[in-house]
């Protein structure tokens, strides 16, 4: 079973630890063939070790899947703008949220695919943990919209409706284009920023004034 090339695997001179080798290979195989279709024996063969040896480095295949998905959602949160920027400059925070979300999703396309396609394979408890992280991302965006409306910089919009719509658009970016036929990151960020600004910003505000400065 051949592993796919991926943007998520960065070239490095230092050899990967056995655990990282397993994680990297599992990500590729789970995305290409599906979590349920990949056996531990197949994973071990792809890594170059005996199936029983995997348990020296991972708890189980299910635990490995949860680790990969939970880490993706956690890393996404870490690149998004924080509370200080949100309160000081909601428009700057909005632009940063869009750019960071788009860039992270595009850069980590395989991890995004795994999180979306194999979420159903997690246990109820694991799904609850992952959903809590996704809810925190939504709350971060909601806080930006609320701050912008409080400061009268954004149009009044129903946050509970707007946040899911915006995240649905941002989360599906990687599914719009096939590998090798993807527009530049700058063009993609600009397009999504323009669409979101069109909904939120009063017509008297220059949509890209803040984003051009930052």
TrEMBL record:
Pfam families: TetR_C_24 (PF17932), TetR_N (PF00440). Residues 16-76 form the HTH tetR-type domain. PROSITE patterns: HTH_TETR_2. It comes from the Bacteria. Keywords: DNA-binding, Transcription, Transcription regulation. InterPro entries: Homeodomain-like_sf (IPR009057), HTH-type_TetR-like_transc_reg (IPR050109), HTH_TetR (IPR001647), KstR2_TetR_C (IPR041490), Tet_transcr_reg_TetR-rel_C_sf (IPR036271). One of its GO terms (molecular function) is DNA-binding transcription factor activity. Residues 39-58 bind DNA. The keyword rRNA-binding does not apply. This is Transcriptional regulator, TetR family. The lineage of its organism: Bacteria, Pseudomonadati, Pseudomonadota, Gammaproteobacteria, Pseudomonadales.
